[in-house]
Amino acid sequence: MSFTRPNTHRASVLCRRQLLQAGYSAALGLGLSGVVAGRKASAANISTPLFGRAKSVIFIFLTGAPSHQDIWDLKPDAPAEVRGEFRPIDTNVPGVQIGPHVPRLAAVADKFAIVRSMTHSLPSHEHATHFVLTGVNQVPPGSTHMASRSDWPCYSATMQALRPREDGVPSGVMLPTYIHNGYGFSGQTGGFMGSQFDPWHVTKDPAAADFNIEELTLLQGLDDRRVQSRRGLLSALDDQHRHLQVPSASQSLSRSVEKAHQLLGAAGQFRDVFDMEREPAEVRDRYGRHSFGQSLLLARRLVEAGMPIVQANMGTMNNWDTHGDNFGQLKNRLLPPFDQGLAALLSDLDERGLLGQTLVVAVGEFGRTPQINPGAGRDHWSGVFSAVFAGAGVQGGQVIGASDDQAAYPATRGWYPADLGATIFTALGIDPESTMVDRQDRPHRVNTGEVIAPLFSGGNC
C-alpha cells in the first residue's frame, strides 16, 4: 500500500521556515559574549494569552518515537494492516477517544490537549531529536548526526542566556538519562552557545533505592559557609590568571567547577528536592515505583522549587522505537508506566495549584509508519505524529489538527518543531523574535515558528 501526500501547503511552509532558520550561525565552538533582545518582549506584542503564563516547563520526551496511531490518533476504519490490534476507548471528554492502554490518561483527558498534525521532514532519530529538543526545522550547517558545538541550543540553554538566574540554580535539568548511541544526540546541550549554557544532566534513576546526586553532597567536614569560602578563593585565583591563554579543556573544567559550586551554594531546600524519601509513600506509589513515574515526580518537585525547564526522558536511547512487536511492547512495557506517571503528574500539579503555571509537553521525535511491517512493528515516520500539551493556559479536553484517514500526513494545517519551540518560549515569556548576539556580533533569532494558538484559544486548526 502506498501513501500519497495530500495537496496542502506543507512543503511551502517548511521551505519558508527553513530559509528563516538558515539565518542562525553554526560556527563550531561559537560562544556568547552578550545577549540582547532584538525587540522588547511584552504581553502587548504577543497576541496570545499564553505569553508568560508558565513559570516552568516539563518536557516529557518519548525517545525513539511512539506510535501515534496506537496511542493518540487511532484509525479504527482503516485497513487491518494500518489500524493494527488496538481499538479506541472513550475519554472523560465526549467525542474524544484515545488508545486502550492509557486508561488513566483517558480519565483525565479534560486536563490536556492533543495536537494530531505535528510534522517535519526527516525521520532519523538523531536529526529529529535535534529538531524537537531545540524547536527548529532543519539541521544547521556544520552539524552531523552526533552532538557538537555546531548544534542549535536546547530550550534551557536559550533560557539561561536570555534570562540568567542569579541564585546559583541552573535554568534546566535533564533526567534521568543522557540520550546517546556511543555518541550524544544533538539537542541536549548549549550547542553553538558554548558549554557554559549546557543544562544539568542528572543521569541516575530516581526510582533506585540508592538514588542520590553527588554534586549536591557536601564532603565530611564541609558546610555551606566553607564551600562559599573555597569558591571565593578559586575565584581569586582565576582572576589572577585571566590574562593567560587558557586551553578550552581547562575553561570547560573551570565552568564545571563553577557550576558545582553554584549548586552546592544554592539554598538547602534545592538539595532536598532530590531526596525522594521526603515524598510521602502514597504519592510515590501514585506515580509508580518505576523510572517513568519517579522521573515525573522528581520533575514536579523541581518545578515546585522554581526550576524553569525540566526535561524527563521516558526511557533510554530509542526506547519507543518499536520496529518489532509494536503492540506487545506498547501494552506490556511502554504504556502502563507512562500512563500511570503522566496521569499522576497532571492530577498532582492540578491539585497543588501548579498546573496553571506549568506547561507540560509530551512528544517523541516523530511517529511510526501507517503500515505494519512483517515483524508486527512500525518503522520511522515523520509525515505526521502527535503531541500532548497541558497547563499554563492550555484548554484541555480538545483535539487540534487531524491526520488523514491512515495517519500518514496532516489533513489540516501541519505544526512543526519550530512551532513547538515558539509555544514553549512564549509560555515562558520569551519573545520568539528576540535575538542573541554572539561574540562576533552576529545576531541570531531565537525561534522562527508560530505559537500553536488553538491550544489556548480553543477550536481546531
Structural class based on helices, strands and sheet pairing: alpha/beta
**Number of helical stretches of at least 4 residues:** 13
Strand content: 5-15%
| Mean pLDDT over all positions | 84
| Rounded radius of gyration (Å) | 22 Å
Q: Could you state the CATH homologous superfamily of the largest domain? A: Alkaline Phosphatase, subunit A
Query: What string, H for helix and E for strand, traces the elements in order?
Result: HEHEEHEHHEEHHHHHEHEEEEEHEEH
Largest sheet: 8 strands, mixed
Task: Say what oligomer this is.
Answer: single chain
Question: What ranges have pLDDT less than 50 throughout 5 or more consecutive residues?
Answer: 4-46, 233-237, 241-253
What name is given to the CATH topology of the largest domain?
Alkaline Phosphatase, subunit A
The second-level CATH architecture of the largest domain is 3-Layer(aba) Sandwich
* Ends distance: 28 Å
- The CATH class of the largest domain, by name, is Alpha Beta
Share of helix among residues? 25-40%
Biggest sheet strand order reads: 6-5-7-1-8-11-4-12
Summary keywords:
about 450 residues, alpha/beta, Alkaline Phosphatase, subunit A, 2 domains, 8-stranded mixed β-sheet, 13 helices, 14 strands, about 10% strand
How would you describe the overall organization of this protein?
With 461 residues, the protein is α/β, with parallel strands linked by helices. 31% of the residues lie in helices and 11% in strands. The protein is built from 13 helices and 14 strands. The strands form four sheets. Strands 6-5-7-1-8-11-4-12 form an eight-stranded mixed beta sheet, sandwiched between helices. The protein has a two-stranded antiparallel sheet with strand order 2-3. It has a two-stranded antiparallel ribbon with strand order 9-10. The longest helix is centred in the last third of the chain and has 26 residues, at 326-351. The chain is globular and about 55 Å long. The two termini are 28 Å apart. Residues 4-46, 233-237 and 241-253 have low confidence and may be disordered.
